[in-house]
Write a structure and sequence with these properties.
By secondary structure, the protein is an all-alpha fold. Helices cover 65% and strands 0% of the residues. It contains eleven helices and no strands. The chain has helices at 13-26, 36-46, 56-69, 76-85, 97-111, 116-128, 139-149, 156-169, 175-191, 199-204, 206-229.
Length: 230
């Protein structure tokens, strides 16, 4: 479980390393160089101290959700690789994280012997997480985006922990500015016709996610009103 506090993420990196080996093998890695150094670099990136939500726990959670949704993907191996890379570069004060993460995949995967077509698909999927708005029929994009957004459908305690971790990640932003920016993000998500595109996501995650987003937005408005009265 990720508590949002540096040094307390107890995610099993041994299991993640084993999964990385299996994923790159399934994706057609050539065997030279071996996959372990790449796992070391990726897991080190996911454990950087500026992260509170975008941690190895988030990576593990997205991969678990990909497993749930895998039957809906055209290329599950590409989706799994995209999950590994989608926040591999992450600075909360930067806007180019997805582009830099995609570029990292474009450098690393050919070195592992992954073919150009699958490498391009992984990079495309990583860039898609800027908007979480896959085109109709984009099965791989639907699976990755649904897996990434599934956190929004957690129970009350899980969603509160997620929201607190996001706030901690943006601890350098003053409260008023954070409330304004966070409210804009929540409204943007709520304005989407559908948050989840896969049949499973639509059936199991859409309603609780919208309820959580609406409740958080209402809470931000309440705190703004209280601030105005002081």
């Amino acid at each position: 479980m990720d508590t949002g506090i540096p040094g307390t993420d107890t995610t099993d990196t041994t299991a993640l390393r084993a999964r990385w080996r299996a994923t790159v093998t399934a994706a057609g890695a050539s065997g030279r160089p071996g996959p372990d150094p790449y796992a070391d670099r990726l897991l080190a990136a996911w454990a950087e101290p500026q992260r509170r939500y975008h941690t190895t726990a988030h990576l593990a959670d997205v991969l678990a959700r990909v497993d749930v949704l895998a039957e809906h993907a055209d290329d599950p191996a590409a989706v799994e690789l995209a999950a590994w890379f989608h926040d591999a570069v992450y600075r909360p004060d930067r806007s180019e994280n997805e582009e830099r993460s995609a570029a990292l995949a474009e450098r690393a995967l050919p070195e592992l012997g992954i073919d150009p077509g699958r490498t391009a698909e992984v990079a495309r999927l990583v860039r898609l997480t800027v908007t979480h708005d896959p085109a109709p029929g984009d099965a791989n994009g639907e699976v990755l985006c649904d897996a990434d957004l599934a956190v929004l459908a957690g129970d009350g305690a899980a969603y509160a922990a997620y929201a607190a971790a996001v706030r901690a990640e943006y601890g350098f932003v003053p409260d008023d500015a954070f409330r304004t920016g966070r409210a804009a993000v929540l409204r943007q998500l709520l304005d989407l016709p559908r948050l989840f595109r896969t049949p499973y996501g639509a059936a199991h995650w859409e309603a609780p996610a919208r309820a959580n987003l609406s409740a958080e937005l209402d809470g931000l408005a309440d705190r703004t009103d209280l601030t105005d009265l002081t």
